[in-house]
Amino acid sequence: MSEIHLQLTKVHRHYGDGPSQINVLQAADLTVKGGELVAIVAPSGAGKSTLLHIGGLLERPQQGEVEIVGTPTAHMSERGRTLLRRTTIGYVYQFHHLLPEFTALENVAIPQLIAGFSQAAANRRAQELLDLLGVGPRSTHRPAELSGGEQQRVAIARAAANNPRIILADEPTGNLDPATSEKVFEALQDLIRNQGAAALIATHNHDLARRADRIVTLRNGLIEPITL
Ligand code: ADP
Question: 91, 53 in Cβ contact below 8 A?
């Protein structure tokens, strides 16, 4: 049986106070194991980004625990959370957020250099990942010279660069045409299976969500299983 990589227990997150308070998560529970891909499908404003930010240690819940590969984080310092995030979590955004002045290869190498790998090792792995995602021949191009689908593949390679135990993706195919979305999703799926990472992917695309191992939604602040 696979190890639990991401576990949220009784997580609460609200914004604002008093009558205008918005309760986004209320005692939300979620477990994602290594090698498992969970899709989250919910209407805009339901709290998908909030959930991903909390799972990615970018935001703290007001109550509850977030365990990253068995490590509880509720009482961890900001520095501890940052270090844990860098070494265990890869994040893919809807809009690639690649650094425009660097090539595809450099964008994938940079997180590895920050993690302490040598330039040679970082470049080697970056090229391997770009090859795996089908954008190897584009490695010397800057983001502006790549198509939307290619940019997202590079962003996925970057998220995977340090072999994260958890990959979080917020509408990673949201701005791509259907055929490209499918290819990018497949590339992401292969990578997750290859690396045995746990993945939580927010998507509006029901066809893609059905390819996940499980689908969940957000309802009344709770994370619930659904079938589409
Ligand atoms: P989704 O990703 O599903 O569209 P979000 O997680 O972005 O949803 O937002 C959930 C709810 O929380 C929305 O009503 C949004 O307006 C609110 N919200 C999100 N972030 C903040 C914030 N920083 N301050 C106040 N309200 C917020």
Answer: no
When pLDDT is cut at 50, 70 and 90, the band that residue 21 belongs to is very high
Residue among 23, 48, 50, 219 to mutate when testing ligand 1 (max atoms within 8 A of CB):
50
Query: What's the 143 CA to ligand 1 centre distance in angstroms?
Result: 29
Tell which residue, 36, 61, 37, has the closest CA to residue 51: 61
CA distance 39 to 202: 6
Number of residues that this document lists for the chain: 228
Å from CA of 35 to ligand 1 middle: 29
Q: Is the pTM of this model over 0.90?
A: yes
Distance CA 180, CA 25 (A): 32
**pLDDT for the residue numbered 184:** 86
Residue 219 has pLDDT above 60, yes or no: yes
- Tokens for 164? 């994260």
Structural domains of the chain, with CATH: 36-59+87-225 (3.40.50.300)
